[in-house]
Amino acid sequence: MGIFILGGLVFIVSFCLFKYSAFRKTSKDQSWLKLSIVGVVDYLILVIGTLGTGILFMTLYTNSHG
Fold first, then answer.
1. Alpha-carbon gap, residue 29 to 39, rounded angstroms
2. Could you write out the three-class secondary structure of 3-46?
3. How far apart are CA 60 and CA 24, in angstroms?
4. How far is the CA of 60 from the CAs of 13, 41, 56, in angstroms?
């Protein structure tokens, strides 16, 4: 169970850092629509990565501890 909590925390920190970086790189004349699209894409990438990593670790753990 702890691995899922740790994965969730990593996900939240990574997503916040991605959003902070994207916000700093946008200028005032760029639209919020583009920033929102980048946010959705970042979110999907992080969700898929978190789920994939969790499944991989749980599979390895189950196989190694029989």
1. 18
2. HHHHHHHHHHHHHHHHHHHHHHHCCCCCCHHHHHHHHHHHHHHH
3. 39
4. 25, 28, 6
Residue 39 backbone phi and psi in degrees, to 5 = -65, -40
Check if the beta carbon of residue 7 is closer than 8 Å to that of residue 53. yes
**pLDDT tens string 35-66:** 788 778 878 887 888 788 888 888 888 898 87
Average pLDDT over all residues of the chain: 80
Distance between CA atoms of residues 38 and 32, nearest Å = 10
